[in-house]
Amino acid sequence: MATLADLSGFVRQTGDGGAEIDFAVQGVTCAACIGKIEQTVSAMRGAPSARLNYTTRRLRVAWRDEHFAPADVAGALAPLGYRVQPFALAVVESEDLIYGRRLMRCLAVAGFATMNVMLLSVSIWAGAASYIDPSTRDLFHWISALIALPAAAFAGQPFFSSAFNALRSRRLNMDVPISVGIWLALGMSVVETIRHGERAYFDSSLMLIFFLLVGRALDHTMRQRIRGVVSNLASLRAPKACRVLPDGSLIDVPVSALHPGDVVLVRPGEHLPVDGAIAIGESEIDDSIITGETGRRAVAPGAEVYAGSLNFSGALSVTVRAAGSATLLDEIERLLEAASAAKSRYVRLADRVARLYAPVVHLAALSTAIGWLIAGADWRVALETAIAVLIITCPCALALAVPAVSVVTGGALLRAGVLLRNGDAVERLAEVDTVVFDKTGTLTLPEPHIANRGEIAEDLIRPAARLALSSRHPLARSLAAEAAGQAPFDNVREETGHGVSALIDGEDARLGSAAFAGVEDEQSTTTLSRIAFRHGARSAMFEVRQVLRADAADCVAALKRAGLSIELLSGDSAGAVAEVANALAINNAQGGLKPADKVARLEKLRAEGRKVLMVGDGLNDAPALASATVSISPASAADLTQTVADAIFLGDRLASVCAAITASRMARQLMRENLGLAVAYNLLAVPMAMAGHVTPLVAAIAMSTSSMLVTANALRARHAANLDWPRHKAKSLTPRGAAIFPAGAAA
Amino acid sequence: MTILLYLVPIALALGGAGLAAFLWSLRSGQYDDLDGAALRILQDDDIAGNE
What we know:
The complex is a heterodimer.
Chain A: E1 4-5, E2 12-13, E3 19-26, H1 31-42, E4 49-53, E5 58-63, H2 73-77, E6 83-87, H3 91-129, H4 134-155, H5 157-168, H6 175-194, H7 202-236, E7 240-244, E8 250-254, E9 263-266, E10 275-280, E11 283-286, H8 288-291, E12 297-299, E13 304-305, E14 310-311, E15 316-322, H9 330-343, H10 349-374, H11 379-393, H12 396-415, E16 418-420, H13 425-430, E17 434-437, H14 439-443, E18 449-450, H15 458-468, H16 474-480, E19 493-495, E20 499-504, E21 507-512, H17 514-517, E22 529-535, E23 538-545, H18 552-561, E24 565-569, H19 574-584, E25 588-590, H20 595-607, E26 612-615, H21 622-627, E27 630-634, H22 639-644, E28 647-649, H23 655-690, H24 696-714
Parallel strand pairs in A: 1-8, 17-24, 17-26, 24-25, 26-27, 27-28
Antiparallel strand pairs in A: 2-3, 3-5, 3-6, 4-5, 7-8, 7-9, 9-15, 10-13, 10-15, 11-12, 11-14, 16-28, 18-23, 19-20, 20-21, 21-22, 22-23
Helix pairs in contact in A: 3-4, 3-7, 4-6, 4-7, 5-6, 6-7, 6-11, 7-12, 7-24, 10-11, 11-23, 12-23, 12-24, 15-16, 23-24
Chain B: H1 4-27, H2 34-40
C-alpha cells in the first residue's frame, strides 16, 4: 500500500521563491556516487538542483518548480542502493557550525597579524645583533602595535569571553591566565614603544593567540565531524510514523509532528514509533529494547505499548499517548535525571591543572616584583620583570597539552569506528577498572541469527532463504540474511501471521509456523524461536536465536588480561544470562534486573571506589549508562540510549570497546607526558624570567618550541586505535596495526 | 631608509589582500566539503556530450 510522505517539516523556503531540503544519505562510498546521486535527482520532475556534501554525507536539493515532490527522492535513489532520510540540522549543530566559522575567521586574522608582526620583529632582532637606527626601531614597534592591538582584540575573543564567563561564575580555567598574559604583554609593549624602549612583545602575544586558536579549531572540527556522523545515524534510523487520517487514508509523518490522540498504523516487522494504547488489531510484540527480556508479549486492543518495541505478527493501529521526546517510560526518565547529575561531578584534567596553575603563576609574578623591590631595584624594573614572568608562563604549551591529544585520539578512534561524543570521555575511559556489559544487543548481535545452520542441508537453506526474502515477519529476516544475493521468488503469497508460500520447481514450498508448513514440532516448549520450512516432501526446522557477537569471547578475554574485572547485568531471564556468562567465562553475572537494579549495582561499585565502564544498548540500560563513570553503546542502540552514552561504536565487533580503552589509556599517558613537558618548560623559563633575562626573542623562541613539542608528542596518539586481536602480548589489549575501517568509511 | 615608507604599506596591503581572499572563500562555503572537492575534480561531467 502506497503512502504519501509529509516532509513539510523539513522543507525550508529560501526567500527568492525557491525551497530546499536536506537529506542524510547512506551508502555513499566512492567518487562515482557523487555524480550518480546528483544526476539522478536532477533528472527528476521539476528539475531540482542537487548537491551532495561528501564529507558530511548529506544531500541538499533546491527547487523552484512546484511539480517537484521532495518525497520522491527516496524512491528515485533506492534502486541505486542509497538510503536517504530527510534531515533537519539540530540547533546544537547549527550553533556549532557558526562557532566553527568564527574560529576560522579569528584564526585567519591571527595568522595574518602574526606573520606581519614577525616580519618586523625579525628585522628588530637582527638590528639588535648588528645595528638598527632607534627611530627605525620605534617605527617598526608602532607599526607592530597598529597591527597587533586590533588583531588581538578580534582574534582573542574566544579566550576572553570564556575567561570572563569563568570569572563571573567564580571559577578559574586555563583561559584566565591566557587572557591576563596576552593583555599584560600588549599593554607593556605599548608602554615600551612610547618610551622608545627595546622590549616589545607584540609578536609573542600574537603567536600565542595563533597557536591556541589552531588547537581550538582542530578540536572543534573533530567534535563537529563526530556530531555530524552521530546525527546522520540518528536520522537514518527513521523516526517516522504512518499516520491514519480520520478519512482512513495514510500519510508518513516525522514522529516529532505527531500529537497525542493521533492514530498510527504499525505493520508487522516495524518498530513502534510512539508510546500509546492499541486501538485495533492483535499481535505479538517484542519489547526487549525496553525491558531487556527476550521473548514476545501478546497484545490486544487496550494494551499499553511503548516506543521501540518490535511488532511481529499483525498490523496494529495505535492511539498516540506520547510522541517525540516524551516517548519514554516515566521510571527510566526519573532514573536518568538522577544519574546524569552524578556524572557532572567529573572535573577534566585540564581544568584541574588550571585551578592549580593560575594562582601559582600569579604568586610567582608577585614575589618577583617584591623580590626586586627588596633588592633595591627601581619599581619600574620590578614591574617589568614581574610582567615578563607572566608573559613567559602564559600557558601556551599547557593549554595545548590536553586538547591536542584528545583531538588526535578522537580522530584515530573515528577511523576505527568509535565515535566519542563527549570531550572528556577519553580521560574517563582511561581510568576504568571494571567493565559492565548488558547481554541482549551488546554481547549478542542485535538481530537474531540461525543457530542450527550446520545441521540443515545446503540445498534446503538456499530456497528457504530466498523465500524468506518475501516475508515481512521479523524472524524471517534472519533467514533472509542467508540468501546472499539471490532475488526473491515471483509468485509468493503471504498469509500474515502464518507464513509465506510459493511454487518452487513445480512443488509447493511453505515457510512459516510449524502448523502452516505442516512440519511436526517435536520441542514445543523452548526459549528458541523456530521457523518451519517444507519443500515438497522434504522439511527443515530453523532455530532462530540471539547469537554472541563473533569476537565477544576475545574481547572479554582481552579485557581480563588487561586486569579489568568484568560483570554481566541483564534484564533477561537468569537462565539465558547464565548460558552467555558460561560461554564467555564471566563469573559475575546477574539476570532479571530492572533498570533501577542496574543503577543500584553501579552505585554499589562506585561506593567501592571502582571506575565502571558500562556497555549497553537497550532503553532499559539508559539510566545505567548515565550513572556509570563512562559508557559505550553500539550504533544499533535505542535513540535515547545513544544520547546518554559517552561513545558509540559502529559495526558488529566488540573489538571497538577494547580499542577505545587502549587508545584512551595511551592518550592519558601522552597527556601526562605533555603536562610534564609544559611544567619542565616553566621550570626552565620562570627562573630566567625572574632573574630578568627574558628578552622578546627568548620569549618567542621558548613559547613556540614548547608548543610544537607538545603537539608533536600528541601526534603519537594517531595509531592508538586499531581492532586486531592480540595473541601474544600479555599486557596490551590490542597490538599496533591497521584499522579495519579505511578513513572515512565510518561515516 | 625612506624606501620603507613604501615597502611596509605594500607588504601589509598584500597580506591584507590574502586575508580578505581567505575570508571570502570561507564565507562562500568552499571549506564545507573538503573530501568531496578532492573527488569532484575527477568527474568529467563538464565535457560536452558526456551527460
